[in-house]
Structure formats: C-alpha cells, structure tokens
Amino acid sequence: MGRKFFVGGNWKCNGTTEEVKKIVETLNAGQVPSPDVVEVVVSPPFVFLPVVKSSLRPDFHVAAQNCWVKKGGAYTGEVSAEMLVNLDIPWVILGHSERRALLGESNEFVGEKVAYALSKGLKVIACIGETLEQREAGSTVDVVATQTKAIAERISDWTNVVLAYEPVWAIGTGKVATPAQAQEVHAELRKWLHANVSPEVAASTRIIYGGSVSGANCKELAANPDVDGFLVGGASLKPEFIDIIKSAEVKKSA
Ligand SMILES: O=C(CO)COP(=O)(O)O
C-alpha cells in the first residue's frame, strides 16, 4: 500500500515570536524516524510562516492554516494560494472544523478551496468530522461522506491530498476518540473512496486522525490499520509532539 505515516502540527492561532522560536528549537533537536518513515508538517499562523520555514530542520515542512478560495484580488484579510506558492509553502490545511463552525465555511466552499489550492500546486490537508450531536444521532458516516463528496466532486487527482478525520467533539476537549472509533470511521472513509473515487485512491490516500492526540495515546491510535497519522493541535506546541512523530515506528514493526 505504501502510505507513508503523516504527522501534522496545527498551531492554530497561537504563538509569539519567542514561543515560536522555542518550538522550532525543540523540533530541530528532536530525534525522530527518517523522512522515509514519517512525513512531518507544521502549521504556524500565516505571520510566522516565513520565519518557521527558514529556521526549521529540512526534513520537516510547513503548511498554512487556510487560503482563499480562488485567485487573489480584492479580498481584504485573505491570503491566496498563489502567495503560498510564491513563498514556497508546500502545504495548506483546509476545511478545519473551527473555520467551518466559526466562519461558516460550507462543504461546497471547502471543496472549492481544495480544488483551487491543488490546481495551484499546493498539497492539501483536508479536514472533515462530525459534531457530538451528529455522532449521537448515528449520522457520523453520512456526515463525513457528504463532506468528502463535496471535495471528491471537484478534484480528479488525490495524490496531493491528505484526509484528516477530526471529530469535532474530540478537538481541544481532551476527549480522544478510542482507537476503535477512529479505525471504524477511517475504514468507512476508505470504503467510500473505494466505491466513489477508485480502489487506487482508496488504497493510497492517507487518512489521519485529529482530536486530543497526545504523547500518551498516539501509539494505540497509530496501531490501527487505517490510521495513517495525525493532525495534532494543542500537543503540537509542546515537546511531546516529538513522541507523536515517533509513533510512526508502530507502523514499521506492524
Ligand atoms: O484541531 C485539531 C488539529 O487540527 C486537534 O486539536 P487538539 O489536538 O488540540 O484536540
């Protein structure tokens, strides 16, 4: 199958110049498996992207946390995909639940953003996930399938897409999905890709988990066959992010 383990660190709207410097120093000093085993991408706020990119170890890469849905222009406060390409930022996170919920980004809007970013040559971490109400109503699989469909309808090449399953109820709550819950949804997503995109895309697309991932729970989650890595929030600001990266070793020995 050859899905390389992927660990993303989403710093969200956190950090001062000093804090960013410290985080980068910690990352640069960390002993982690080789880039053949794990792909590591950290995502600072826009304003810190250049400094992080220039000071970060070369085996780790950077991602923006968002970009505009189409070509730049008169869109005050937005940052375009073209600008990220111009700055050599390889990755962008799109469709994070915080943006969906707080800024009203719809499935369609996220799908359009993913398509536009890919068309400009960016690699995309596309986020999906259900709320607690949706889970309790038994609609988890429907919700994530609908979110994935809005992306799938607008793109033809999945090579540069990582799908991040982030149940909203697990984000920033300390309430991590159990390994079985994560595996179940990831397997359903892979089944959906198999049926609706292609068996090849289903086999090769990385599906990563996000929501209260920590140094303490990462190994158990990583041991599941359809969990191809993590998108880490709070713990990506701390030294334990290195331990989370190391959980890639679980796959090597699997
Ligand atoms: O939203 C997340 C990553 O994008 C997860 O955040 P936490 O790891 O802080 O729960």
Automatic annotation (TrEMBL):
Pathway: Carbohydrate degradation; glycolysis; D-glyceraldehyde 3-phosphate from glycerone phosphate: step 1/1; Carbohydrate biosynthesis; gluconeogenesis
Lineage, top ranks: Eukaryota, Viridiplantae, Streptophyta, Embryophyta, Tracheophyta
One GO CC annotation: cytosol
Gene3D superfamilies documented for this protein: Aldolase class I
Reactions this protein catalyses: D-glyceraldehyde 3-phosphate = dihydroxyacetone phosphate
Family affiliation: Belongs to the triosephosphate isomerase family.
NCBIfam families named in the record: tim
Source species, domain of life: Eukaryota
A matching Pfam family: TIM
UniProt name for this protein: Triosephosphate isomerase, cytosolic
HAMAP family: TIM_B
